[in-house]
Write a structure and sequence with these properties.
alpha+beta, 5-stranded mixed barrel, elongated
């Protein structure tokens, strides 16, 4: 009878002992994934900060071009002389500037070389109304100066891009002109007739903020590492306490 009782006790002890390696492996696996995720996300933010610094440096070093015939480099300051095509104005919807809701007028512009450019003229307050906006546009030959932005990857759309004269995002294909714009991009107007309040900024998130995000992720990775090691020590102690003592042979 004692042999049966001893056998059952040994079997239960073995099952209890086998649970510890599985729990320990699960513990190491879970917290290791968190540590690696924190390190990877921190590195990603660090690299984004470096990319932003490089981008801002390129903007600072961008040239100033007078009536260019070639596509300007991103961030270049461009000076144009020509005439607005006032009747072709569309409006970039849902802009917010200084707490006000409005639009950004987008007017094609033909320079003295005959090239078409798209000019983003600034912020026009409209409030919550959904009526088609209107904006005064200068006549005759004018001189404009602004910063060039090349078209790139567009944000996803949920529904049609154009509603009346409003656009959800800038799309050069929205203008059905006999001739298209000369260069893939648009000029953010900073000086000249037809200029409204400037709202566009070339870099929304500064590099310092990305560095702060990187430090936060690395801090979380360090905290996860500490928790993982402390928990592993507790598992080791529990295993040593629960291990059956070896009885001397009889």
């Amino acid at each position: 009878m004692s042999n049966i009782h001893g056998s059952m006790k040994a079997s239960a002890s073995k099952r209890h002992h086998r649970r510890f390696p599985a729990r320990r492996l699960g513990w190491w696996g879970f917290w290791s994934c968190l540590v690696m995720a924190g390190l990877a996300l921190g590195l990603w933010q660090w690299e984004r900060a470096a990319d932003k610094r490089e981008y801002l440096a390129r903007l600072e070093a961008a040239p100033r071009l007078e009536s260019p015939t070639e596509t300007p480099p991103p961030g270049a300051r461009v000076v144009l002389r020509g005439e607005y095509l006032a009747g072709e104005t569309l409006f970039l919807d849902n802009r917010i500037h200084e707490g006000r809701l409005g639009v950004a007028p987008l007017t094609p512009f033909r320079d003295l070389n005959g090239q078409l450019w798209l000019i983003q003229r600034g912020f026009l307050a409209t409030g919550p109304t959904r009526d088609d906006p209107s904006v005064d546009t200068p006549d005759g030959v004018v001189r404009l100066e602004g910063r060039w932005q090349a078209s790139g990857d567009a944000a996803p759309l949920f529904g049609p891009n154009r509603e009346g004269n409003r656009l959800q995002r800038i799309d050069l294909a929205a203008w059905r002109l006999d001739e298209g714009v000369a260069h893939a991009g648009w000029l953010h107007l900073e000086q000249g007739p037809g200029h409204l309040a400037s709202w566009w900024q070339p870099s929304v998130v500064p590099p310092e903020r990305h560095l702060g995000y990187a430090l936060q992720w690395w801090g979380l990775a360090l905290a996860a590492l500490v928790i993982m090691l402390v928990g592993a020590r507790r598992f080791a102690r529990s295993e040593s306490i629960s291990s059956p003592s070896k009885e001397p042979p009889r």
